């Protein structure tokens, strides 16, 4: 078919089926950027076609200084809706300004009369890159000429700053036309809603929200310097005239070549001042790429600081870690590049301390690049047998002790599987196999030790958890009489996922109320439907943990659902929380470097009982794992101590979930005994314990309308 015939057919279809064109995205209509033969060309690929005639009166070209009001509906070449008059309303143009900024559009406007409509074919090449009016893509736009407005008359004093105007140090003039409230000044961080009109010094109106019949809103800090200097001196509700020297307006703005130059005069009225949203911990969550960069940096720092100190503390000159994909040694997972997520095939990491103050050698006997964290130590093409290559490396260095992650006490230090142990010892032979020792001291030390770099961000991670708990324990999430404990539990789980975070256990919600619920300790953390619907008068408890940047949190806090007319929780519940805080203080006072977990437990329990408390302490280390590596300080069902794990000593630069409960009788609940179950995250610097983001000292209060 002849191309001109095809173009004419397409044009006819377009003219008789405009509704189909406006719904292009919905119908997958393929837009054609080639204008029909009937279109009037304007150069540079721009063309227009009149769709309907107007009133035939004075053409727009005769009204260069008038403000033309139009509707515009436009689409890109791939059918994307760029402009929608139903949503955007009426747009305002001034032809004399368009002649400088968008001459092609100005030419089309000048040729038509009021009431007419036309279609414009506009390639991206004809649109200035800094256009604030049109998207810089190939497009087709339908314009309807609605009406025009006469320019607002200029103020009488546009030519120069009058004597009765205030003058700022930067040279901006300000004259109050109508006073505001006299006290509420905007800051550069605020978003303002204003009405304004602007003139050049010769009285030409170049912009006005009044002519657009809608206000403008913008952050003050992104505007031209003159506005940033002047508006903070005004107050809410004030209307003022400001004179801006060209240097503080558009004279030096290369990105606005068509903006008016020289001194500009604005009448500005501040209608609303909206402070910025407060920065939250959630708003600081990093992208996955940023997280990986931080974690890899942390790992390199740990290799240079933590690793040598541990190997020398434990008197180990070689440490070998072996893992296979999806069956990783827990320690290995913390030593891989952050982007790996898991081991690959069989991954073998070897650390060798040559002594005499030399750096610890880090070798990877693996098929895959470890991103500079380890020196590659195996070429399968030269030595196909991976076990033999490991044996050769060991023989070359001749270590006295070879530590492996084998431990009957600590699960986290027992990551070497039987098959991998057998493969290694077969390759080593009796001499070097006889030098193998358990590496649990290295493994636990590596996992439990926190660095200064990690501790700089750990408070932020814990604060994230606190912020999510506060959000969940609010009337934004809980509707008393409707929301169930199970629904709240799942809200926490979904909220974690929506934020791009992880959890290391399923959150639990427990309810205690004046009508006693028969719940044992285990049920409080597992049977979250036991309380059913959350109602006024309930004491809520959450157990909640997140994983972010490779570090874990573990938090338990309480909320009270206010009854109608209540403004505070019953005094008995408040005193119970205070008793829980007192038990926390007693426990933290028992932390001493070198004490075992059992010694800390028994010292704290003895002191708490002497003060009339009914305590239970089951505090655990925290870090790479929620139930982390280090001394166990009681279990809920072993309040006399924990053999093995409780005998491990306390070291500095370690983190803990301070987990415990205190049983208290509540007078307002007929002396029913409840448990205040608290868990807050902290770290031990060798002398004192410091909460990473504070602790709960007041109950969350949830209002109720019932």
Description of the structure:
The chain is 27% helix and 25% strand. The chain is α+β, with helices and mostly antiparallel strands. The strands form six sheets. Strands 1, 2, 3, 4, 5, 6 and 7 form a seven-stranded antiparallel beta sheet that branches. Strands 8, 9, 10, 11, 12, 13 and 14 form a seven-stranded antiparallel beta sheet that branches. Helix 12 links the parallel strand 19 (402-404) and strand 20 (436-438). Helix 5 (95-101) runs antiparallel to helix 6 (103-111) and helix 17 crosses helix 18. The longest helix is centred in the middle third of the chain and has 26 residues, at 288-313. It is extended and about 100 Å long. The model is unreliable at 1-30 (pLDDT under 50).
Distance between the termini: 75 Å
Query: Spans of 5+ residues with little confidence (pLDDT < 50)?
Result: 1-30
Decide which structural class fits the backbone: alpha+beta
Mean pLDDT: 87
Task: Outline the fold blueprint.
Blueprint: H1 3-16, H2 18-22, H3 24-27, E1 40-43, E2 46-52, E3 67-76, E4 81-83, H4 85-88, E5 91-94, H5 95-101, H6 103-111, E6 117-122, E7 139-149, E8 166-167, E9 173-178, E10 191-200, E11 205-208, H7 209-212, E12 216-219, H8 225-230, E13 239-244, E14 264-274, H9 288-313, E15 318-324, H10 330-333, E16 346-352, E17 361-365, E18 375-376, H11 386-397, E19 402-404, H12 418-433, E20 436-438, H13 440-448, H14 452-472, H15 485-498, E21 508-512, H16 521-526, E22 539-544, E23 547-548, E24 551-552, E25 555-561, H17 571-589, H18 597-610, E26 615-617, E27 620-622, E28 654-666, E29 672-684, E30 689-691, E31 700-702
Parallel strand pairs: 15-19, 17-18, 19-20, 25-31
Antiparallel strand pairs: 1-2, 2-6, 3-4, 3-5, 3-7, 6-7, 8-9, 9-13, 10-11, 10-12, 10-14, 13-14, 15-16, 16-17, 21-22, 22-25, 23-24, 26-28, 27-28, 28-29, 29-30
């Amino acid at each position: 078919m002849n191309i001109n015939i095809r173009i004419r057919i397409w044009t006819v279809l377009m003219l008789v089926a405009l509704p189909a064109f406006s719904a292009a995205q919905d119908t997958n209509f393929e837009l054609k950027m080639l204008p029909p033969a009937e279109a009037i060309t304007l150069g540079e690929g721009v063309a227009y076609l009149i769709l309907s005639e107007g009133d035939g009166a004075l053409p727009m070209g005769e009204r260069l200084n008038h403000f033309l009001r139009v509707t515009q509906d436009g689409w890109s070449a791939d059918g994307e809706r760029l402009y929608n008059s139903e949503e955007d309303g009426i747009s305002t143009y001034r032809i004399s300004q368009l002649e400088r900024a968008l001459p092609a559009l100005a030419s089309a406007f000048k040729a038509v009369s009021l009431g007419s409509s036309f279609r414009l074919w506009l390639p991206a090449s004809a649109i200035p890159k800094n256009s604030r009016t049109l998207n810089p893509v190939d497009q087709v736009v339908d314009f309807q000429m609605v009406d025009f407005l006469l320019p607002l008359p200029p103020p009488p004093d546009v030519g120069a700053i009058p004597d009765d105007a205030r003058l700022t140090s930067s040279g901006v003039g300000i004259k109050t036309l109508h006073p505001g409230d006299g006290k509420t000044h905007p800051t550069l961080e605020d978003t303002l809603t204003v009405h304004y009109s602007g003139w050049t010094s010769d009285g030409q109106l170049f912009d006005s929200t009044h002519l657009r019949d809608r206000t403008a809103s913008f952050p003050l800090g992104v505007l031209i310097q003159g506005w940033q200097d002047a508006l903070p001196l005004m107050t809410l509700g004030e209307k003022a005239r400001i004179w801006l020297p060209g240097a503080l307006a558009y004279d030096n703005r290369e990105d606005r070549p068509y903006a008016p130059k020289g001194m500009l005069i604005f009448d500005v009225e501040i209608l609303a001042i909206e402070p910025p949203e407060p920065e939250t911990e959630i708003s600081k969550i990093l992208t996955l790429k940023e997280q990986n960069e931080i974690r890899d940096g942390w790992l390199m720092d740990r290799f240079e600081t933590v690793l040598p100190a541990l190997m020398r503390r434990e008197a180990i000159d070689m440490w070998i870690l072996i893992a296979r994909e999806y069956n990783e040694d827990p320690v290995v997972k913390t030593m891989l590049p952050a982007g790996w997520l898991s081991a690959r095939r069989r991954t073998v990491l070897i650390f060798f301390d040559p002594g005499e103050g030399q750096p610890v050698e880090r070798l990877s006997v693996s098929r895959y690049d470890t991103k500079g964290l380890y020196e590659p130590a195996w070429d399968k093409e030269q030595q196909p047998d991976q076990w033999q290559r490991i044996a050769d490396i060991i023989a070359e260095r001749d270590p006295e002790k070879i530590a492996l992650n084998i431990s009957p006490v600590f699960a986290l230090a027992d990551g070497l599987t039987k098959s991998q142990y057998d493969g290694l010892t077969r390759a080593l032979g009796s001499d070097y196999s006889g030098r193998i020792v358990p590496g649990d001291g290295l493994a636990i030390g590596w996992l439990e030790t926190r660095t200064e770099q990690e501790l700089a961000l750990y408070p932020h991670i814990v604060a994230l958890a606190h912020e999510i708990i506060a959000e969940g324990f609010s009337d934004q999430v809980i509707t008393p009489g409707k929301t169930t404990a199970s629904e709240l539990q799942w809200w926490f789980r979904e909220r974690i996922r929506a934020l791009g975070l992880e959890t290391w256990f399923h959150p639990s919600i427990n309810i205690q109320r004046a009508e006693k619920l028969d719940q044992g300790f285990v049920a409080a953390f597992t049977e979250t439907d036991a309380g059913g619907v959350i109602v006024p008068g309930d004491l809520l408890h959450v157990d909640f943990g997140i994983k972010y940047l490779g570090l874990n949190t573990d938090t338990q806090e309480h909320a009270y659902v206010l009854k109608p007319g209540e403004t505070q929780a019953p005094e008995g519940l408040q005193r119970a929380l205070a008793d829980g805080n007192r038990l926390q203080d007693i426990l933290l006072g028992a932390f001493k470097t070198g004490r075992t977990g059992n010694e800390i437990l028994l010292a704290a329990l003895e002191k708490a009982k002497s003060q009339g408390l009914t305590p239970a302490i089951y505090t655990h280390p925290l870090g790479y794992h929620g139930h982390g590596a280090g001394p166990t300080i009681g279990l809920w069902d072993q309040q006399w101590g924990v053999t093995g794990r409780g005998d491990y000593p306390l070291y500095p630069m370690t983190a803990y979930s301070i987990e415990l409960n205190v049983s208290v009788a509540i007078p307002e609940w007929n002396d029913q005994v409840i448990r205040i179950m608290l868990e807050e995250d902290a770290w031990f610097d060798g002398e004192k314990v410091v909460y990473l983001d504070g602790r709960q000292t007041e109950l969350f209060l949830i209002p109720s309308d019932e």
